[in-house]
Amino acid sequence: MNLRVLLLAAPLALAACTSALASPAATGMTKTSDTAPGFIPGPVTSGTFKTWVEGSTAVTYDTAAVPVGATAEVSVAESKSGARVTAALTGLVPGRAYGAHLHTNPCTANPAEAGPHYQNRIDPAAGPGKPSADPEYANPENEIWLDFTADAEGAGTATSVQKWRFDEKRPPWSFVLHERTTTHTGHGEAGTAGARLACLTRDPMPVYTERAGRG
Ligand SMILES: [Cu+2]
C-alpha cells in the first residue's frame, strides 16, 4: 500500500471520518484539528505556570510577563518524514510579543538549565556556555521557533513545521518563553530572543540515569 498517497488523500476522507481514535496511518483519517495531512498526533504536554517549587514542570521566572496561572499546551505530531509542533497559551499579557523555542533540557529553578535550543543538525561550534549563534544552525528550519503575539485576551498560538523528525535519543525536553521575538539573524546573535520568562517541561520527565552515557 502506498502510505504517502493514502495520507495525502486524508482531507477527502475527513467528512466520512467518524472516529477520532482511529489510527490515521491505518485509515487515512486525521483529526480535524490536524490541517496538514500525514501528521499523526503525538505527545501533548500542558501546564499552568507558577513560581518555582521543587518538582515544578511549568515555571514562570517573570510574573509580570508570564503571570502565575498562565497556561501552555505543546503538542507534537510527526509524519513519515517531518514533524509539527504547536503551542497554545493563555493568561499572558494582551498584545505582548513573545519569543519561544523548544530547548534540550527540563526546566529547573535556574532558567539557563533548560539548555540550548533543540537543533536537528547540531552546531559543532556550540557547547556548554557557548550557545549556537551561527545562522546556518540557529534558524527556524533547524530549530523549533514558536514566537507569537498574545491576542486581546492574552492567548496565543504558534506552529512550526519541519521536514525532519526528532531524534528519540536526544528529544527536546522543554518549551521556553523569551522576552522578545526571535528576530536576530546575524552571525553571533542568530536565534537569540532575550531573557527566559517561563519554562514548560515535557511530560514525562526524562530519567537521566537511563540516559547517562549515551552522549
Ligand atoms: Cu529559547
Automatic annotation (TrEMBL):
Annotated GO biological process: superoxide metabolic process
A molecular function GO annotation: metal ion binding
The keyword Nucleotide-binding belongs to this UniProt entry's keyword annotation: no
Keywords tagged on the record: Signal
Pfam families the UniProt entry points to: Sod_Cu
Top-level division of the source organism's lineage: Bacteria
Signal sequence extent: 1-22
Coiled coil spans: none
Residue ranges of every copy of the Superoxide dismutase copper/zinc binding domain listed in the record: 74-199
Similarity field: Belongs to the Cu-Zn superoxide dismutase family.
Protein name: Superoxide dismutase copper/zinc binding domain-containing protein
Species per Swiss-Prot/TrEMBL record: Actinoplanes missouriensis (strain ATCC 14538 / DSM 43046 / CBS 188.64 / JCM 3121 / NBRC 102363 / NCIMB 12654 / NRRL B-3342 / UNCC 431)
UniProt lineage: Bacteria, Bacillati, Actinomycetota, Actinomycetes, Micromonosporales
